[in-house]
Design goal:
Layout: H1 10-25, E1 30-33, E2 37-40, H2 44-47, E3 52-54, H3 56-60, H4 65-71, H5 85-89, E4 122-124, E5 129-132
Length: about 150
Amino acid sequence: MMKLLRRGSTLSRSLLLSVVLACGLAGMQVARAEFGDVVINNYSDPAGMRPAVFPHWFHRIRYSCKVCHADLGFKFKAGGNEINMVKIIDGQYCGACHNGNIAWSVDNCDLCHSAKPGTPTQVHESTIGTLVVPPGVVTPTSPSVPAQKK
């Protein structure tokens, strides 16, 4: 059973979608979540390359925050890391996984370096979505919800 429900399986995706749809139809509050792409342009423009675009949410649905932000040392700030291709090829930052074994290697520059030239390093909120807030959870934008009686 656990094998059927492993992260990324078709069954687990279907179950998640069903739960989200059911909750949405039940009239629950909606909270905004910003898991946008991160544009990395600390060194690209001066090197004559287009800025790199890191699809944060694509990675986040596959790995926990700990993998990149603790194990690999990525700071929680766009532009807070001194990422360059020498470090990536040496297996640091993105290169820890993008080595041709775990994920595709760095041989095709256009897979990452896809932003328009001159785009500053930033969180580009192009993937803003909505998440359903469970009943009784208070968000900064929702009114206080009284505690439920036990």
